[in-house]
Design goal:
The complex is a heterodimer of chains A (402) and B (202). By secondary structure, chain A is mainly alpha-helical. Helices cover 69% and strands 0% of the residues of chain A. Chain A contains 16 helices and no strands. In chain A, helix 1 runs antiparallel to helix 2, helix 2 crosses helix 12 and helix 10 runs antiparallel to helix 12. The termini of chain B are far apart. Classes of the chains: A mainly alpha (402), B alpha+beta (202). At the A-B interface, helix 2, helix 13 and helix 15 of A face helix 1 of B.
């Protein structure tokens, strides 16, 4: 179209960037056209993620309402669609309080880090063919690294708030996040092993069979682990409202609270997009060249709905139950999945895995999941819910004074 | 089994999607209200009230204030007082309804409204003017005659002072100080049957 005089950059895979970059480079110096094109697609991405967070918050509240036999927010705008905007304006007009004993800089940095990590995560996700901001060849590793940034932000929030509830929430969330990082990483190893690449677009292109059937155990572990990372029910003890007010964001108000909420709902969106990419085939589907974005959006919103469904259903687990679930169920499950996938890939991978071989792997892994999940459920029952017909806890029965 | 119990739990919430929501959208939709509902708009019939202040005496919180002045015309008739002040301090009212129980002439009724919210506590009282102008939708609470007539305050049909009494209180047919009762021919015929003519007690 326009002959580019400038050097090739990693962002040139993106067609929109390429168009602006090549067009601008005929008028402007190279560094200026680079900045112009980069800022343009960055703004699009940031607005997409934050607006998506608003949509997710609306959708989640409506869905939660329906799951609980209510209606949900429906007063402001058609079907209550403008409710997130109203919430935002309410929060912006609130006073922005910083506690007297707080570390002001760290306290202020927390919402920024959370939103920034979120947008950085969204940068590598392909929304349709060739539309990720940058197609990193270490995409999965990058995503896992960036998603751990959130736990640092949580830790900073708890420490900087000068509030005991915030510190409680932080201690809990960091414990949870550290123990859930391991099974999440191990579950993604199976996917990466089959594809042979960490680039998200090549993972999508490889999925002639969606990986949710090829890697059912990995999907289960990843879904549970990610809802633990996002501090969502049933793993939301970091911000357990009924126990420790709001956990790490107890002291946040005004625009900072709005940013933290945006980061939480945006986290749901980005993680759902990630699950859709890794396990549901991303933008793949009929007429994917034209309707890829629609497929991607539909799959993402489906995962968001599943997250809402889980949140509407399950009660919060105790910290020991969460730790037991992580180390005694999810870690073994992901290891079993990894071992099975390793053997399958070793046996089948002779010059690339075909669709038929993927189906064979899917059948083997589905049988494996059908055996493993009930067995581990059985084991977990004895760990989590001891048979205690009297309803009195063991320690109270032993020591009536305690 | 633990895992299957989780799936069953998920199905419970999924079933709710097919059900009709339980919510009633209040300003547009309303819950059907019981006829004996004790609302905050007190219904007062000035024509029936003698100003005896039984309600004020029985009120456990002492929030009803009644000031009567013997009127020039009524004092001749011996049993009529003109009411100057009838204030109910709604901010402290607990809607026990003892004032309504105490009223010997069926002049005071609990109302059927519940939307008298105000922005300031000072505005939370009912004055005699508001009582005069209030919607006459009396609650049937402690008024068996209204229940027997199967009156429903929610229907929106107001009741006049002649329709709410336990029996035909004959002294109501007389002229009350400062009021025109607009007696109908039927009322006149009742007053004709009175044992004591209105003016005979003077």
């Amino acid at each position: 179209m326009f002959p580019s005089q400038c050097e090739d950059t990693i962002l040139r895979d993106n067609p929109l960037f390429r168009f602006i970059y090549d067009y601008a480079s005929s008028l402007l110096p190279c560094w200026m056209s680079y900045v112009l094109a980069g800022v343009t697609i960055m703004l699009i991405l940031i607005n997409a993620v934050l607006l998506g967070a608003a949509v997710v918050s609306w959708m989640e509240r409506r869905l939660l309402g329906r799951f609980q036999n209510r209606i949900g927010p429906n007063r402001w705008g058609p079907f209550g669609l403008l409710q997130p905007i109203a919430d935002l304006f309410k929060l912006i007009t609130k006073e922005d309080l910083i506690p007297a004993g707080a570390d002001r800089i760290a306290f202020t940095l927390v919402p920024i880090i959370m939103v920034a990590a979120l947008i950085l995560m969204a940068a590598v996700i392909p929304f349709a063919k060739d539309t990720s901001l940058v197609d990193l060849n270490v995409g999965v590793l990058y995503l896992l690294a960036i998603s751990s940034l959130t736990s640092i932000a949580l830790f900073t929030a708890g420490w900087a708030s000068d509030n005991r509830y915030a510190l409680f929430g932080t201690a809990r969330s960091v414990a949870v996040l550290i123990s859930y990082e391991v099974p999440v990483v191990l579950s993604l190893l199976g996917v990466v092993m089959i594809v042979g690449s960490m680039s998200l677009s090549s993972i999508v292109e490889f999925q002639s069979v969606p990986f949710i059937v090829v890697q059912p155990l990995a999907f289960f572990v990843f879904l549970a682990g990610m809802s633990a990372e996002l501090n969502r029910t049933p793993f939301d003890l970091a911000e357990a409202e009924s126990e420790i007010i709001a956990g790490y964001h107890t002291e946040y108000s005004g625009i900072k609270f709005a940013l933290i909420q945006a980061a939480e709902f945006g986290g749901v969106l980005v993680v759902s997009a990630l699950i859709a990419t890794l396990f549901l085939g991303g933008w793949a589907g009929p007429w994917e060249d034209y309707l890829g974005w629609a497929w991607f959006m539909g799959k993402t919103l489906l995962i968001v709905a599943i997250f809402s469904w889980i949140r509407a259903t399950f009660p919060r687990l105790r910290i020991d139950q969460i730790m037991a679930f992580s180390w005694k169920v999810m870690l073994p499950l992901s290891l079993i999945n990894l071992a099975a996938t390793t053997v399958e890939v070793y046996l089948l991978k002779s010059g690339g895995i075909t669709t038929l071989e993927l189906w064979i792997m899917a059948i083997i892994n589905l049988v494996l999941a059908g055996v493993c999940l009930p067995v581990f459920g059985r084991l977990m029952k004895d760990k989590v819910r001891k048979s205690n017909p009297s309803g009195v806890s063991q320690s109270l029965r032993d020591d009536p004074t305690g | 089994m633990y895992g299957f119990a989780m799936v069953r739990g998920l199905l419970v919430t999924l079933k709710n999607l097919t059900k009709k929501p339980f919510t009633i959208q209040y300003p547009e939709q309303r819950v059907k209200q019981h006829p004996r509902f004790r609302g905050e708009e007190f219904v007062w019939y000035e024509e029936r009230c003698t100003g005896c202040a039984s309600c004020a005496k029985y009120c456990p919180l002492g929030i009803i204030k009644i000031v009567t002045s013997p009127s020039g015309t009524a004092i001749k008739q011996g049993d009529k007082y003109k009411l100057e002040v009838f204030d109910i301090e709604l901010q402290r009212c607990m809607f026990c309804g003892l004032c309504v129980e105490a009223c010997p002439y069926d002049a005071l009724f609990m109302g059927s409204g519940f939307e008298q919210g105000q922005y300031s506590r000072e505005n939370m009282f009912i004055s005699i003017d508001q009582l005069r102008q209030s919607q006459k939708h009396p609650s049937t609470w402690f008024r068996p005659q209204l229940e027997e007539a199967e009156y429903k305050p929610g229907d929106g049909r107001p009741l006049g002072w002649r329709d709410v009494g336990r029996e035909k209180w004959r002294w109501h047919q007389r002229e009350k100080a400062g009021m025109r009762l607009n007696l109908t021919a039927a009322d006149e015929s009742i007053s004709d049957t009175l044992d004591i003519k209105p003016d005979s007690r003077v």
